[in-house]
Specification:
It is built from 13 helices and eight strands. With 328 residues, the protein is an alpha/beta fold. The N terminus is likely disordered.
């Protein structure tokens, strides 16, 4: 038996020689059977043990390619997590970290930025007893990217644009710019991935036109894509977005209100809308005398519709109506 196996047995069976007074033969046998099963699971590889640690969150920094913008986290958008940790008395699910290459920090966070913020906020606001629960793993950058993506893909608190930028960087860093290879590794369809990559390519003016990057959605990029592909429309679209972005910048400086995302999209659509064809006037004009206002008569199915100016004089109206009756 190897030293590793010896250690496993020593760890599990170390106290069997000194059973407690309350133990009965049945209990001892049951406990032995349970521990024997645990030994078998460990040795077969069916049982994987993880070492979790409670640490000061100040020992961690965010991985530079973390798919969440840590600067956007605040008390309001982390309130649910802050309240949950405070109510439970601890963090329930560990963050995934790896050793940090930065000598100022021991670990870098791969998954768990919101948990890091929540615990840090609690410690800074009268709850110094809380610590950050972590699981340390040995991960390559590509593995770290996929792990973070799997954990956060369906979470609504990461914006489409944050995810799109993450994908656009990852495809060049890890997959040689090959969309098919990246889609296979992430186990997503190529069209799905393509939509996010297109979102990441939106001009900066359009990104800045939104109150926040969290308001920028993948479906909006899809809607704007045809206009951006047309040089003439793209020019109008960028000009409109630049104007809106200036209004948003003033709002960020406390000078006025933000333009909400719905209104932003309405204005961008309007900037590139095709001009409506002039309304074709159908029907016949009748008047008392040439050059004088009268009535407009139009047939709609079995009905006849007459229109005239509300200020038309009675004499002109009578004359125009008589002209219509003669023609009829």
């Amino acid at each position: 038996m190897t030293k590793k196996h010896d250690a496993v047995f020593d760890d599990i069976l170390g106290d069997l020689d000194t059973p407690s007074p309350a133990s009965t033969p049945e209990r001892t046998g049951s406990r032995f059977l349970k521990r024997s099963t645990t030994i078998a699971d460990r040795l077969s590889g069916d049982l994987e043990e993880k070492t979790l640690r409670w640490i000061d969150p100040a020992a961690c920094c965010m991985w530079q390619r973390h798919n969440r913008d840590y600067a956007l986290l605040n008390e309001d958008n982390c309130r649910d997590l802050i309240d949950g940790i405070r109510a439970q008395g601890r963090q329930e699910f560990p963050a995934i970290v790896r050793r940090s290459p930065d000598p100022l920090y021991e670990f870098e966070v791969i998954c768990g930025a919101r948990r890091h913020f929540a615990v840090s906020w609690l410690r800074a606001n009268n709850y110094p007893q809380f610590k950050y629960l972590i699981e340390v793993r040995d991960l390559s950058d590509e593995e770290a990217f996929r792990l973070a993506d799997i954990e956060n893909r369906d979470r609504e608190d990461i914006s489409d644009y944050e995810r799109a930028i993450d994908y656009a960087e990852a495809i060049e860093l890890y997959y040689g710019g090959k969309q098919k290879a990246m889609a296979e590794r992430l186990e997503v369809s190529q069209p799905w991935l393509s939509r996010y990559l297109a979102l990441a390519k939106l001009p900066d003016e359009i990104v800045r036109a939104m109150p926040s990057i969290r308001d920028l959605r993948e479906r909006q990029a899809r809607e704007l894509k045809p206009a951006l592909a047309d040089p003439a429309k793209a020019q109008k679209l960028i000009a409109a977005a630049r104007q809106i972005a200036q209004e948003q910048d003033r709002a960020r400086a406390g000078k006025g209100a933000f333009v909400d995302p719905v209104q932003v999209m309405a204005r961008l659509r309007q900037a590139t809308a095709d001009p409506r064809p002039p309304k074709v006037q159908t029907g016949t004009e009748y008047s008392r005398a040439p050059g004088e206002s009268g009535i407009h008569v139009q047939r709609k199915g079995k009905r006849v519709v007459m229109e005239f100016d509300a200020n038309l004089s009675e004499a002109s109206l009578r004359g125009a109506f008589e002209a219509y009756l003669k023609k009829r």
